[in-house]
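If it is no trouble, can you show me the amino acids of a protein and the tokens describing how it folds?
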Amino acid sequence: QLQLVGSGGGLVQPGGSLRLSCAASGDTLDSYAIGWFRERPGMERRGVSCISALADRTNYDDSVKGRFTVSRDNAKNMVYLQMNNLKPEDTAVYFCAGVIPRSADPSLCLMTLGPPPYDHWGQGMQVTVTS
């Protein structure tokens, strides 16, 4: 059973950068596709980025393309979301989540809540971008 512990949230000015991290334990990380989600104030949770189990596929929401980069280091049991050129509209609670592809494409890279559903979630990380 995969456990995910997030870190790296904080307060930054527009144009600044943050790196969010999720540390995995309890299972083999390279068995899991990872998604990054956020909840902006007053809005539904939606996908920001995803990365397949072996990092052969990544995807980004249009709102963050060119600014955010997802990566993973399975040997270190770590997943990252590098966020550059942050904007006020990036203010949100961010989550990492994992899912085992199983019968799905082993290169699964999913930016929605499923199916298959993301069933392993880290805690939310507050990111606030303001001047």
